[in-house]
Amino acid sequence: xxxxxxxxxxxxxxxxxxxxxxxxxxxxxxxxxxxxxxxxxxxxxxxxxxxxxxxxxxxxxxxxxxxxxxxxxxxxxxxxxxxxxxxxxxxxxxxxxxxxxxxxxxxxxxxxxxxxxxxxxxxxxxxxxxxxxxxxxxxxxxxxxxxxxxxxxxxxxxxxxxxxxxxxxxxxxx
Length: 174
Fold this sequence. Notes:
Shape: elongated
Strand content: under 5%
Radius of gyration: 20 Å
Number of strands: 0
């Protein structure tokens, strides 16, 4: 907290000599570091507050929002966590990184089907290699789980089809 106060005072003293976005970025990074320190001490409420303040400074940063959403989810506030990520996508609907961050959150929250759909909304030309790998992994996981459920329900033909689709999705990774 002393570090945050010191850095904030320095940033405030610099006034207009630094661009506003750089000041916001620096403040957000200090708050992020403060949140991580609170997490190490298992002070979740303080960590959450620090990340919420950081998001205010850098509302356009999907990765900062993802950190906040993960922490909220960890505390059982899944709806609030989802809202944090959905707000990012609503604010930046064409940003591939925002959708990717949302998909990662959905995946970690057990919403695999939603995560696959979110990734499918990213235009193919904008998909990075990590996005493609994540989408493939989630699709394979989803199809494998579907095959398992079908097999448990004695639908062996359906289970085989789902496994075949999973193998096709895996391609050369199989």
